[in-house]
Amino acid sequence: YKTLRLILGDQLNASHSWFKQQDEQTLYLIAELHQETCYTVHHRQKIAAFFAAMQQFAFALQTAGHQVAHLTLDDTKPFKELPALLDHLIESYSIQRFEYQLPDEYRLREQLANFSESLPLNSAAYSTEHFYLPDEEIGKYFQASKSHRLENFYRKMRLRFDVLMDKEVPLGGKWNYDANNRNKLKTDDLANVPAPLLFSNDVTSILERIDKHKISTIGHSYTQLLWPVNRKQATQLLSFFCEQCLPRFGQFQDSMTGKLSLLGKDNGWSLYHSRISFALNAKIISPQYVVKTAIEAFERSEGRIDISQIEGFVRQIIGWREFIRGVYWANMPDYASLNALEAKRQLPSWFWTGDTKMNCLQHAIKQSLDYAYAHHIQRLMVTGNFCLLAGVDPTFVDDWYLGIYIDAIEWVEMPNTRGMSQFADGGIVGSKAYAASGNYINKMSDYCSDCLYKVNKTTEDQACPLNSLYWHFMDKHQHQMGNNPRTKMVFSSWLKKSEQQRIEVLNKAKHCLDDIENL
Ligand code: FAD
Ligand code: SF4
């Protein structure tokens, strides 16, 4: 072979221009790497999904006539790090040129840039040809340390890529239909929640490899993996979403329920969400294809899918997903150590078991351990909110999210966790800290009615811990909260309480924090 081309586990884009021509002289490398299994403790399903998808991709490339080396953990065991493996292959095959696609993670981009620089042969880095916004244009939209707002960016993207536009005007007359999209699932709505489309990909041998190589993992795994691992399954999942979930996607996007699992049903975790994030982040499917397919379903639906649902979905993909990526690249590597609220606490150990009496947290965590998945509001307003209120060090929070979710890759995990949910970036991603008391959880879910704690109590014995922790957070960060136009009003209601009341609330919060392991 003359050329070695590296394909990382999240670069499974079959439409990449690399694959337009077959070339006997080019060897594609797809390898299960030890370094990738242990930079954090991953969920078992996450490792299984990446390895299964890589295996399928290698097979598809071979079938299409390309030369592929698909290496398992057994093959790569002697090489602790990727450069050592690459050096070995370059030497063994007398390779003359090394090529790779630009990694989306800072850690890997640095590693491969350094490796290429040290090589005595020619090398080149290519775009992954996946995102709407090309790499070289990120700097036009995002600057380091600067606060950016999703809405401005999102409108620019809609205009630029002509998505849901009627010439210069947004389709339906409004850019944003979020206000229509904040419903709670009522008891009558529960019967309509569709059962999720799940796959059964046999990952027995991958799980055996994980154990054989003593890779530390979290969460449960099943020999039949339910996540999509190839393009066919990803498009099936997307069609299922467009047919069954998109008509109510926006409407119930923020709602959460524990009732369905009490009824023994297996659809409370998925609700109306697409669960397409793994296939997207592994680049098995492209954001353009997802958006185009959803818009076609909207156009065909003769009103069954209304504009607020499709707009809500499109905003997640061409808005949030691209926005988060821009923030990441404009601010790395400094972003990884931001801690604006100086949070220092450890995560309580029940984050790894779900054994807490707080019903909302118990649900979100157990579900994450079961499926490697929680939807956005569970991540932001349940687990994320708890960490924010309790003052958990954002590095521990990042690490937990990076490990547990099927779709967690640093470029998308970190600005969401450290920025949006922990406000550790001081407002680069969001204009306020997403802090909430039990009242918010009660408004958006049915968790509270089955909880040991009382959501309408703050200082009493059985009071919901989130209530006192919320005021404790406001009080502790009064400088930020009192001066921020979006939290100023709430903060002033804290000041309106009598001194005695405030002392009682703060004492209760202190008690909760001292007893955090037993909440
Ligand atoms: P849907 O609700 O069906 O949304 C459709 C798609 O929109 C998603 O697949 C995703 O690609 C995109 N999207 C929606 N919101 C966001 C967002 N805030 N940022 C980026 N893309 C978004 N997403 C990840 O892909 N990886 C992560 O590691 C990750 N970590 C998160 C951590 C926290 C604390 C929070 C609050 C959010 C995180 N998100 C992450 C964003 C979001 O929660 C997930 O993308 C979403 O839950 C995936 O499920 P879905 O495919 O069913 O999404
Ligand atoms: Fe969560 Fe509090 Fe409601 Fe319990 S009462 S589910 S802890 S918000």
From TrEMBL:
Keywords from the UniProt entry: Lyase
Provenance organism: Agarivorans albus MKT 106
Gene3D superfamilies listed in its UniProt record: 1.25.40.80, Deoxyribodipyrimidine photolyase-related (1.10.10.1710), DNA Cyclobutane Dipyrimidine Photolyase, subunit A, domain 3 (1.10.579.10), HUPs (3.40.50.620)
Protein's UniProt keywords contain Magnesium: no
Protein name: Protein related to deoxyribodipyrimidine photolyase
GO molecular function ontology, one term from the record: lyase activity
Alphabetized Pfam families for the sequence: DPRP (PF04244)
Keyword Lyase: yes
